[in-house]
Amino acid sequence: MKRMAVALSATTLLLPLSACGGSAEAGSGSTVTVTVGYQSKTINTVTAGTLLRALGYFEKQLNSLHDGHTYKVDWQDYATGAPITAQMTAGKIDIGSMGDFPLLLNAARGKQLGRPTHLVSVTGYNLRGGLNTVVTAPDSKLSSLEDLKGKRVSTSVGSAADGTLVRALQRVGIDPNTGISKLNQQPAVGASALSAGSVDALSQFVAWPGLLAYQGKAKALYDGAQLNLPTFHGVTAREDFTQKHPAALEAFLKAQAQATDYLNDHPVAAAEKVAKATGLPAEVVYLYNGAHGIATFGPAVKPRLVSALKQDVSVLKAAKLTGDIDVDSFVDDQYVKKALGAAYAQRLAAAPTPAASEVWAKGSEKTVSFTSPKGLLAYVAGHRNGIRAAYVPDATIGTLWFADKAVWVTDGDRLLPFVAPATAQAYIAAHGGARTVSYSYALGRSS
Fold first, then answer.
1. Which stretch is the leader sequence (predicted)?
2. What whole-number distance in Å separates Cα of residue 144 and Cα of residue 420?
């Protein structure tokens, strides 16, 4: 969280700390291997992982250093953030990327085991928290968080998705420890459990909710953006590595900025590259990483994100996953500031692109944007066989969602989409005459 992490087991933490680091000892003319741990399918880290690797920008930046060293990059792909942290604290990974809650565990474990790490840049973020979603089975009768009381819910403990679940339940008066039966499962296991009917709901991070909805295996119950709390992914680096090879880290951050620019300038092509590398549908990648996607990409370490990180500590402490964490000492933006120079201030001030309705037509390398959901519906209605994907922003929160998976409401001449049924019902309650309608009805009304 776009957030793949569970609590590190005791066995994992006992990895030998005397292991050789990812970088060779750097004498003059030596070979320096930079080991990068990433999560290919956590697609809001792609500018520091999947997309960056595909574009080859890091290798090019290293080759341009001409400092007497030969550089090699060892890319290591993991399913979650926990093993990346384990390998970093064992001195085997130099640079890693993961979601905000896993970053805090990374900070805590690094300090605990004498391998301190630091947050050095940000990859993708959503200022309202829309990267996490609670979903249910397509035929589920559950329509609100209150309905989860006494139910079985799958999540990954220690992840941002778990944090969203805990906070959301607390807001509706449900004790997250006793009010539900929580199952600590990897995302793929939880997705299978939801399909098998062994759990009633699944709280997960990008890209699982969008993927399951796209596949027709789930529907949204709760949009994490309802919390209005920022969530993000970032890059963490070992302190001893950054001190020994600052030029290599700066090269990584320059390359990350290049990959960010590529994603923002060529969102469709970027989605296709990530899809090819991960096996995820490009339509799902674009939902999160597209021109108006749920995630905004930028390497600058925004104060608002750091503030949110500090608020996350209490959730992990309550779950007994960590103690106090000195977030200020964990955050170290000196390297990204140096790497980006005068451009850093501009990136720091950059705001997310306003949400908009968008259609991806078959065979097209570009998407078409619309000023209103009704305009998109009219276009889709006239090109039913030529649509690859259609996206609409939630009418009150702004989270992008698949048009055919949204909850549609008619209010006079207006056709309004919502990610979750509860937000749609909240709108209806405040607007006399408004009512929910089917997607097919909305299409028919659009012309």
1. 1-26
2. 8
Residue type, 173: G
Residue 311, classified by CB atoms within 10 Å of its CB into exposed (0-12), middle (13-18) or buried (19+), is middle
* Contacts of 361-370 spanning 24+ positions with Cβ under 8 A: 361/386, 361/387, 361/388, 362/386, 362/387, 362/388, 364/268, 364/388, 365/268, 365/269, 366/268, 367/267, 367/268, 367/286, 367/290, 367/291, 369/291, 369/292
Number of C-alpha atoms within 13 angstroms, CB side, residue 310? 11
Predicted local confidence at residue 27, as pLDDT = 52
* Residue 44 DSSP code: G
Residue with tokens 């776009």: 2
Does the pLDDT value for residue 344 go beyond 90?
yes
Strands 95-99 and 31-38: parallel
- 101: part of which helix (H) or strand (E)? helix 100-112
Residue reference for tokens 């674009």: 286
Q: What pLDDT score was predicted for residue 383? A: 93
Q: In which element (H, E) is residue 235 found?
A: strand 231-238
Whether the per-residue pLDDT at 126 is higher than 80: the answer is yes
- Structure tokens that stand for 253 in this block: 């951050």
How much of the chain is in helix, strand and coil states, percent to nearest 5? 45, 20, 35
Q: In terms of Cα–Cα distance, which of 311, 303, 286, 321 is closest to 401?
A: 286
Which residues, other chains included, contact 389 with Cβ-Cβ below 8 Å and sequence gap of 6+? Answer: 283, 286, 287, 359, 360, 402
Which residue in 347, 354, 128, 85 sits closest to 232, CA to CA?
Answer: 128
User: What gap in Å lies between CA 356 and CA 230, rounded to an integer?
Assistant: 20
According to DSSP, residue 331 is labeled B
57: its two tokens = 């920008």
Distance between CA atoms of residues 346 and 164, nearest Å: 30
Beta bridge partners of 267: none
Is the CB of residue 102 less than 8 Å from the CB of residue 85? yes
Full set of structural domains in the chain with CATH: 10-127+230-349 (3.40.190.10), 132-227 (3.40.190.10), 357-445 (no CATH)
Q: Would you say 231 and 161 are in contact if contact means Cβ atoms under 8 Å apart?
A: no
The confidence score (pLDDT) of residue 80 equals 86
| Amino acid found at 29 | G
Instruction: Write out pLDDT tens, residues 215-258.
Output: 999 999 999 999 999 999 999 999 999 999 999 999 999 999 99
Positions of E strands within 241-394: 296-297, 357-361, 367-370, 387-393
